[in-house]
């Protein structure tokens, strides 16, 4: 059910911190009805599963009341209705009154079914409310292990394996007469869970199929589809009634095509119109047709002035042919006699655009495909004129696939050819062929790169020698060898390949020599031969020279990747290794990675990872086989590492089953295997689904173990993987449990290796988010080492170092240690930088340090507060927010805070102006800063003059609790000057504040009560509060354990009461 809710159901966007709601659409209504049918009668079909108690209750706001729900097994307790049956002292069903409405809580499907029976005609309302409150209900029912995940979900298979193992253990125990009743009961319960999970999976599948069917019916037209249908019908139009289906068909209008492909005017495009068509059938009047996104329909045609009347006439049709069939009997008869295949095929032979090879799902390719479609249409328009000039007697043409599709490698295709005496053949090409790209050059994939990739490589400019004077002798020798490759027999080819390998192929001159004389085409063509030695020789050379940026681009342009992907399924292990390594070198840029995925390379590369690491070795042959398998897996992991920089490739890897294979290889004792495996994992760890898999598949322990490796590169990748995975608390706890914090701190000593240092400090930063880890870092004296890294380090290291110090500084002893280690001056110096990520972390770290008064003294002396204030001018909202948060403790702990703030020229005006920001984090932080500034009376007077009151009042309608808390505090402080209380009332700030008392956050209650107390000193505000119903919630808060909340609530009620008494007295006096 989770997949259907996630993928098929239509949700509104989440707003103001609350989850989205199910939209009131037809597809959602059908899904809800299916779920209702599933629940109705469930207990009679599956009585045992219906009684299965959930892991946690499904809770939702209900329209039911105890009177409508009462029945056997249920008893009333005050206003609530609860079941007699309980689990862990929790009732299996409860209907509790929450303020105005009731909240329903059910822990079995049996009670869910009872709710539906009681709801009667409000069944859909109850199911909708339940699903909106429980976005993944399977988690509540069966536990976290069955949570909905992206990609393949193997949880049920692991659960079945677990049950199978327990059955085997019980069978063993019963054979040994050691019966275990408790285990048998647990096993029976697990079987019930499995049965229920399978039932829910069937429901999930039914819902998904239902949504697919619905979406298929509602397919919408696009400009490309309209143009395609129009062009086909125009090709079938002409003056001869016996030969053609229409007399003519043309677009109506001035012929202008907008950038989005539409021909309709922009004001009509708002109504979904794409184009207007005038079709002239042989048997009737002209037909004027509107092509709309919803389908084709007839319009009223041109009026007396020649302007088109857009009003719809009749029904809509899904395609143009169906509409014309309905309107013209001649068209219906003639269209069925047409033979499209021959006509289309004749044109495909000389016009098949390479651009057709692209992922259907690539969003960035849609505009590109549209441009190609426009070029194709232009050719269609021009070609009939050429055909008229060179018209010859028609002869039957053999239908066969275009050769361009063959070169693209889109399908297995073999030309009929005469076999020579030997199987070895080299297909010769002209040198001009190397200018033709075999993969689309313009189309770009949708990428989210997980590692920083040099744009220099993306925009590499091809360099060619302008003169032959300075070329070394190797350049000419390689050119001679390439000639032997082109014209020699099998033996000569192998000798030439061996001779070529004797050169230093790592030298750029040798690499470009092979390319300039056309050697790349020959080497790639050799991969299509049947001689294994030639393939191996060619791949060894390609592997070496593909380290060059220009060479790897040329290989991709010549279709080398497609051939190498095919080789991955070859039986020869050496061939597979070389192909995978070459792919790893070539797939360093976007287009190459996309080509590998499009031609099925990801699945084949994942297949290479499947090797045995634990088989017992008894003979040398077995040892060799295992070594070869390990090498194949290593090369496969190397290629996947390069490909994993693309988000879509990560998804393809997951679907192909890469995660369990990578987890298995992570336990390998071979370090050369571990480096690409961990490298791949740390690239993929930018995706949540991979982080979840790394945690649940037990890979964290192996990553921690490999932190103790002697290889810096392996340590770096392990630390980087932990850095990305430690976003989740569970992973941080696992790193600590497996002893990973100690080796991370020890890696800080390797200051020469900046990449390793950046990874280690990043991992420490994320691990320090958990207080339990902070304690261990204190014991390891990590702060002193981190402070030592604040100078003379690159920015990527500094960002992580400062981030780690900021997290560690949340503990009071660590703030003292940072000062003793001399960490405050370098932190303040970093406030003058320009790196946005670094500024965010530095401001947070300085803010945490300023919580200590002694630290604040040093920050003030170093002019740190002025630097923080200047960062409020930064254009980045994150920097603005973190700077404002840092200013708060600075004002609180400065000795003469009021004078310090006033000394900043234009500082108060600047911070008040930030209340115009649209970023809620900025607003919350600025309100907190204003609350501290307003403690000083002179500063409060200045910000009042700058218009702080109306700006704060405009923000009061927010529903964000964090902003509410600091906004209410700021209003409470600002009430202490002049007529500000009256101004707040006049600006309409009082009534919205009363709503804050309904929040679930106690801190919001406290600050709101303070604000209301201050505002209640004005009689008009008291009247507004009373009318808004403030008394009842304040009376409850008077009984709170929070003394400040008690006092403020009581004071506000007292002011309201005193005003009421004064009115009474005035009335009767």
TrEMBL record:
Stored SMART domains: ARM (SM00185)
Start-end of Basic residues biased regions: 425-437
A Pfam family this chain is assigned to: Arm
Composition bias type Acidic residues, residue spans: 442-460
Region of interest (Disordered), ranges: 344-468
Biased composition (Basic and acidic residues): 344-360, 368-390, 399-424
ARM repeat windows: 559-601, 657-699, 739-764, 781-823, 906-948, 988-1030
Protein name listed in UniProt: Armadillo repeat-containing protein 4
């Amino acid at each position: 059910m989770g997949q259907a809710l996630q993928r098929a159901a239509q949700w509104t966007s989440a707003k103001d911190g609350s989850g989205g709601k199910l939209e009131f659409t037809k597809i959602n209504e059908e899904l809800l009805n299916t779920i209702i049918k599933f629940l109705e009668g469930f207990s009679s079909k599956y009585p045992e599963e219906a009684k299965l108690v959930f892991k946690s209750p499904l809770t939702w706001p209900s329209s039911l009341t105890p009177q409508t729900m009462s029945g056997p097994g249920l008893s009333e307790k005050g206003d609530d209705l609860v079941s007699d049956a309980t689990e862990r002292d929790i009732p299996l069903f409860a209907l509790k009154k929450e303020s105005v409405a009731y909240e329903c809580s059910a822990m079995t499907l049996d009670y869910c079914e009872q709710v539906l029976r009681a709801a009667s005609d409000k069944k859909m309302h109850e199911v909708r409310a339940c699903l909106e409150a429980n976005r993944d209900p399977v988690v509540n029912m069966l536990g976290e292990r069955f949570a909905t995940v992206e990609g393949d979900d193997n949880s049920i298979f692991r659960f079945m394996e677990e049950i199978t193992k327990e059955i085997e253990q019980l069978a063993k125990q019963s054979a040994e007469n050691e019966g275990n009743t408790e285990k048998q009961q647990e096993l029976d319960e697990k079987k019930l869970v499995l049965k229920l999970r399978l039932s829910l999976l069937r429901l999930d599948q039914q819902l998904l199929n239902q949504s697919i069917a619905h979406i298929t019916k509602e397919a919408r037209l696009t400009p490309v589809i309209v143009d395609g249908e129009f062009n086909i019908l125009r090709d079938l139009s002409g003056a001869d009634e016996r030969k053609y289906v229409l007399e003519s068909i043309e677009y109506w209008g001035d012929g202008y095509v907008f950038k989005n492909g539409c021909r309709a005017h922009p004001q009509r495009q708002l109504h979904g119109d794409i184009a207007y068509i005038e079709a002239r059938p042989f048997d009737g009047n002209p037909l004027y047709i509107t092509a709309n996104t919803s389908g084709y329909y007839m319009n009223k045609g041109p009026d007396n002035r020649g302007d088109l009347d857009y009003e719809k006439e009749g029904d809509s049709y899904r395609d143009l042919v169906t509409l014309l069939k309905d309107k013209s009997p001649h068209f219906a008869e003639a269209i069925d006699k047409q033979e499209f295949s021959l006509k289309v095929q004749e044109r495909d032979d000389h016009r098949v655009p390479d651009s057709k090879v692209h992922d259907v799902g690539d969003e960035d390719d849609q505009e590109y495909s549209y441009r190609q479609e426009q070029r194709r249409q232009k050719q269609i328009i021009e070609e009939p004129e050429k055909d008229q000039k060179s018209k010859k007697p028609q002869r039957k043409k053999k239908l066969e696939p275009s050769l361009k599709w063959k070169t693209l490698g889109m399908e297995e295709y073999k030309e009929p050819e005469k076999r020579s005496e030997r199987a070895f053949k080299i297909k010769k090409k002209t040198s001009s062929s190397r200018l033709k790209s075999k993969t689309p050059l313009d189309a770009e994939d949708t990428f989210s790169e997980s590692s920083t990739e040099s744009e220099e490589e993306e925009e590499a400019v091809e360099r060619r020698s302008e003169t032959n004077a300075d070329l070394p002798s190797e350049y000419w020798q390689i050119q001679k060898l390439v000639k032997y490759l082109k014209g020699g027999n099998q033996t000569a080819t192998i000798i030439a390949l061996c001779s070529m390998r004797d050169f230093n192929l790592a030298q750029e001159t040798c690499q470009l020599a092979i390319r300039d004389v056309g050697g790349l085409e020959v080497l790639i063509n050799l991969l299509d031969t049947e001689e294994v030695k030639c393939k191996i020789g060619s791949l060894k050379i390609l592997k070496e020279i593909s380290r060059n940026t220009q060479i790897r681009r040329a290989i991709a342009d010549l279709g080398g990747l497609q051939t190498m992907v095919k080789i991955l399924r070859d039986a020869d292990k050496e061939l597979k290794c070389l192909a995978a390594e070459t792919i790893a070198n070539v797939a360093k840029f976007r287009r190459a990675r996309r080509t590998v995925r499009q031609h099925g390379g990801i699945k084949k590369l994942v297949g290479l990872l499947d090797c045995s690491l634990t088989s017992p070795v008894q003979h040398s042959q077995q040892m060799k086989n295992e070594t070869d398998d390990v090498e194949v897996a290593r090369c496969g992991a190397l290629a996947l590492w390069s490909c994993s920089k693309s988000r879509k490739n990560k998804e393809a890897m997951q679907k192909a089953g890469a995660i369990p294979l990578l987890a298995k290889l992570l336990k390998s004792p071979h370090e050369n295997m571990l480096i690409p495996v961990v490298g791949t994992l740390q690239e993929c760890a930018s995706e949540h689904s991979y982080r979840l898999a790394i945690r649940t598949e037990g890979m964290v322990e192996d990553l921690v173990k490999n932190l103790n490796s002697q290889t810096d590169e392996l340590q770096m990748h392990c630390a980087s993987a932990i850095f990305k995975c430690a976003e989740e608390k569970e992973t941080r706890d696992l790193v600590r449990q497996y002893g990973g914090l100690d080796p991370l701190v020890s890696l800080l000593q390797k200051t020469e290796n900046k990449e390793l240092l950046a990874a280690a400090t990043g991992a420490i930063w994320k691990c320090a988010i958990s207080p339990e880890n902070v304690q261990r870092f204190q014991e390891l004296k990590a702060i002193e080492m981190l402070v030592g890294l604040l100078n003379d380090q690159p920015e990527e290291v500094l960002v992580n170092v400062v981030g780690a110090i900021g997290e560690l500084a949340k503990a009071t002893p660590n703030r003292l240690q940072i000062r003793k280690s001399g960490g405050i001056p370098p932190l303040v110096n970093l406030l003058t930088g320009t790196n946005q990520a670094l500024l965010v972390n530095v401001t947070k770290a300085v803010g945490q340090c300023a919580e200590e008064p002694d630290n604040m003294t040093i920050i003030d002396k170093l002019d740190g507060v002025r630097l923080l204030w200047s960062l409020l001018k930064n254009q980045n909202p994150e920097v603005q927010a973190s700077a404002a948060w840092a200013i708060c403790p600075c004002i609180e702990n400065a000795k003469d805070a009021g004078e310090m703030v006033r000394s900043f020229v234009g500082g108060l005006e600047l911070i008040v102006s930030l209340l115009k920001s649209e970023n809620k984090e900025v607003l919350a932080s600025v309100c907190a800063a204003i609350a501290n500034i307003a403690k000083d009376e002179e500063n409060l007077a200045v910000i009042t003059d700058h218009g702080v009151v109306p700006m704060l009042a405009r923000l009061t309608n927010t529903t964000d609790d964090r902003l509410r808390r600091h906004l209410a505090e700021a209003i409470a402080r600002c009430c202490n000057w002049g007529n500000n209380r009256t101004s707040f009332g006049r600006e309409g700030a009082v009534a919205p504040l009363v709503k804050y008392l309904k929040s679930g956050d106690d801190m919001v209650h406290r600050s709101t009560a303070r604000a209301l107390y201050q505002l209640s000193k004005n009689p008009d505000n008291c009247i507004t509060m009373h009318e808004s119903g403030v008394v009842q919630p304040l009376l409850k808060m008077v009984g709170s354990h929070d003394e400040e909340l008690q006092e403020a609530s009581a004071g506000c009620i007292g002011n309201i009461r005193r005003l009421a008494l004064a009115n009474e007295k005035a009335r009767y006096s």
